[in-house]
């Protein structure tokens, strides 16, 4: 940041130094025509009135309609030391046009008079004074006829001096006030082309486009300073009115529009379409206003309204800038620093206009704006160099960066795996139940998580060494989130099953649903599942959208789903505002019968051919191994399942549970 501030200060100092340079020719050699002027609207032989020194740079104010001719004259004695020298009159910058007479003799003309009025811009004029026109022994009278039309000024103090002094002074003034702006204009056009093509090559860098547009419109405005150097490009081709409308009207308004766009793009702000279209329409209105008349005075008045429209638009980039500063974005600070030159000049101009009552100095304003343009150019170049440096660094150290990043990712992955394994270990211990002491049932199961932590849940409802019921549930989703939900709902299910031993099982399931919805809050996971309650030789079952339980009859050697006509086994648990009605069904159970419970992770397991394992394969594997011990039956199912899936990864958690009535 210190380096950036140093560069800003140095560039601003150099530009101001250049703009304030003075020639070093001895002031004693010059004869200044500084006071004693008088003026008339009609010239000789009409009466002339005294002209205040302060009114020389603003002659147009002396005309009631701010348009017409005004004549100024001054009588003086030429110093005798000029008698043997070739002498010239330095008139300086004149607007709009002027003819100069000495003792009734025409010395020359600056600018063009109606019907083809035109200014020579910031070009300084000077004229040779033939010795035969001079009265060395008497008074000399210089008279200047000035054409005014909203403009009317002799900006510099006229003086008479030796030819080399005047020519040197005029050339120096033309360099500072005119020619140098042509150089700036050409430079800005080159910058425009460079950044426009940069944008075409990299469309994501939208600030390059708005900056190039800002440079182009500024180059267009600078034409007003050096147009007098090349009269061939304007003489009688188009009117002074059109020149004013384009270069002093259109160019500044378009520049203001592009400055707002550049602010938005530089600070990476996304503008709404409505705002973008609205600003564009307002800018078109501001551009059209000066062209709505064929009168220069009215055109300049309408142009002021156009500028007011653009000033109001600057509320938008101001808000953007304030938001960026609140976020402490470094680019916002750099953006403000680049505008320091024009801030200082605006303060200075406000002081001179309001306090000192002097007219606005467009030259100083233009210089300050060029400072801003080149500061932003430097900032964009610095950003580009930094980006290029990063790319170069990445290219040189890419392999090392990849290795470092890979190691970091591997470390993070190992940490995550350890956390998931730990969560899975905690979950298994949380579910672990000793079934060896149960007297009325033999129970075996297989339980495998897809990713360490399972969203499947099985519950054995016991009292001492007696099994009162069993439940199996499947939580939506995978991983740690669904695993945590299983731990939440397990306690709810166990509590409600125990409290509802004397109530119908479908009421118990309804209560479980209500509590889970209430206690899980905004958690989106839901459940499917079923509960079976045992009593002697009867079982009661409620199914909430889970795969149907299977019942094997040892007496009849028949395996089939547990179902009953008219009894609903659809639905879900834990979904707010979801209408669901749970229903119970009852079935008989005998010694040696087996109940098979499983989750859809088994039926939806796929192989390389994208075939599903399905419920038919579950029944087939069970029938082939039903005569084997219960543990072998469970192992046969898992072995067949993994053989079927082959190299394919599991799609879901799997749980397989077999209960045999003793």
Please characterize this protein's 3D structure.
There is one protein chain. The chain has 662 residues and is α+β, with helices and mostly antiparallel strands. It contains 16 helices and 21 strands. The strands form 4 sheets. A 6-stranded antiparallel beta sheet has the order 3-2-4-9-6-7, with no helix packed on it. A hairpin with a 2-residue loop joins strand 15 (527-535) and strand 16 (538-544). The longest helix has 70 residues, at 362-431. It is rod-shaped.
Oligomer: single chain
Question: Which secondary-structure class do the elements indicate?
Answer: alpha+beta
Strand content: 15-25%
**What is the tally of beta strands?**
21
Mean of residue pLDDT values: 86
Widest beta sheet: strand line-up: 3-2-4-9-6-7
Shape: rod-shaped
Write a brief caption for the model.
The protein is built from 16 helices and 21 strands.
Task: Provide tags for this entry.
662 residues, 47% helix, rod-shaped, six-stranded antiparallel beta sheet, 16 helices
Which secondary structure elements does this structure contain, and how are they paired or packed?
Elements: H1 2-19, E1 31-32, E2 38-40, E3 49-50, E4 67-76, E5 87-95, E6 97-102, E7 105-110, E8 124-128, E9 140-149, E10 153-154, E11 159-162, H2 163-201, H3 206-221, H4 223-226, H5 240-266, H6 273-288, H7 296-313, H8 315-326, H9 330-338, H10 340-354, H11 362-431, E12 441-448, E13 456-463, E14 466-475, H12 479-499, H13 505-520, E15 527-535, E16 538-544, E17 550-553, E18 558-561, E19 584-588, E20 594-598, H14 600-603, H15 614-625, H16 630-645, E21 654-661
């Amino acid at each position: 940041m210190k380096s950036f501030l140093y560069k800003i200060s140095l560039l601003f100092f150099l530009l101001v130094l250049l703009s304030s340079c003075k020639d070093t020719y001895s002031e004693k050699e010059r004869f200044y025509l500084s006071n004693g002027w008088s003026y008339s609207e009609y010239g000789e032989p009409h009466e002339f009135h005294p002209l205040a020194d302060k009114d020389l740079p603003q002659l147009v104010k002396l005309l009631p309609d701010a348009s017409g001719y005004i004549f100024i004259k001054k009588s003086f004695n030429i110093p005798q030391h000029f008698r043997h020298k070739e002498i010239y009159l330095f008139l300086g910058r004149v607007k709009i046009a002027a003819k100069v007479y000495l003792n009734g003799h025409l010395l020359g003309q600056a600018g063009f008079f109606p019907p083809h009025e035109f200014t020579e811009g910031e070009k300084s004029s000077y004229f040779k004074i033939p010795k035969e026109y001079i009265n060395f022994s008497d008074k000399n009278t210089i008279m200047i006829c000035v054409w005014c039309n909203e403009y009317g000024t002799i900006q510099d103090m006229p003086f008479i001096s030796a030819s080399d002094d005047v020519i040197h002074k005029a050339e120096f003034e033309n360099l500072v006030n005119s020619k140098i702006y042509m150089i700036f204009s050409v430079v800005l056009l080159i910058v425009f082309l460079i950044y426009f093509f940069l944008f075409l090559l990299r469309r994501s860098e939208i600030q390059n486009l708005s900056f190039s547009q800002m440079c182009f419109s500024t180059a267009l405005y600078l034409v007003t300073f050096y147009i007098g150097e090349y009269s061939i490009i304007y003489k009688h081709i188009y009117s002074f009115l059109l020149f004013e409308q384009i270069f002093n009207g259109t160019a500044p308004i378009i520049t203001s529009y592009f400055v707002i766009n550049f602010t938005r793009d530089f600070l990476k702000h996304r503008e709404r379409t409505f705002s973008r279209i609205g600003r564009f329409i307002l800018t078109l209105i501001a551009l059209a206003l000066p062209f709505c008349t064929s009168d220069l005075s009215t055109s300049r008045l309408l142009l002021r309204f156009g500028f007011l429209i653009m000033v109001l638009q600057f509320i938008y980039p101001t808000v953007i800038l304030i938001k960026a500063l609140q976020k402490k974005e470094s680019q916002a600070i750099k953006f403000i620093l680049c505008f320091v030159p024009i801030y200082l000049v605006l303060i200075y101009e406000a002081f001179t206009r309001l306090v000192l009552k002097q007219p606005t100095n467009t030259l100083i304003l233009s210089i300050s704006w060029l400072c801003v343009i080149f500061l932003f150019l430097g900032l964009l170049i610095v950003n580009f160099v930094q980006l290029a440096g990063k790319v170069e660094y990445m290219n040189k150290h890419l392999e090392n960066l990849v290795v470092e990043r890979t190691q970091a990712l591997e470390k993070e992955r190992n940490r995550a795996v350890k956390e998931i394994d730990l969560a899975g270990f905690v979950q298994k211990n949380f579910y672990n139940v000793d079934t060896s002491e149960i007297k009325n049932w033999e129970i075996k199961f297989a339980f495998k998580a897809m990713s360490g932590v399972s969203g499947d849940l099985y519950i054995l409802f016991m009292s001492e060494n007696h099994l009162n019921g069993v439940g199996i549930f499947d939580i939506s989703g995978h991983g740690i989130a669904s695993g945590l939900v299983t731990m939440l709902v397990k306690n709810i299910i166990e509590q409600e099953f125990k409290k509802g031993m004397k109530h119908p099982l479908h009421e118990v399931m309804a209560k479980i649903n209500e509590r889970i919805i209430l206690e899980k809050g905004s958690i989106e996971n839901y459940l499917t599942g079923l509960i079976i309650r045992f009593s002697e030789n009867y079982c009661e079952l409620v199914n909430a959208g889970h795969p149907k339980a299977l019942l094997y009859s040892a007496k009849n050697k028949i395996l089939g789903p547990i179902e009953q006509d008219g009894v609903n086994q659809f639905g879900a648990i834990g979904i707010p505002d979801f209408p669901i009605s749970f229903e119970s069904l009852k079935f008989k159970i005998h010694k040696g019968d087996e109940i098979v419970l499983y989750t859809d992770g088994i039926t939806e397991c796929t192989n390389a051919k994208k075939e599903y394992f399905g419920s038919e394969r579950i029944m087939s594997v069970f029938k082939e191994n039903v005569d084997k011990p219960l543990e072998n039956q469970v192992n046969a199912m898992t072995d067949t399942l993994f053989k079927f899936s082959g190299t394919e990864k599991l799609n879901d958690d799997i749980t397989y549970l077999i209960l045999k009535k003793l």
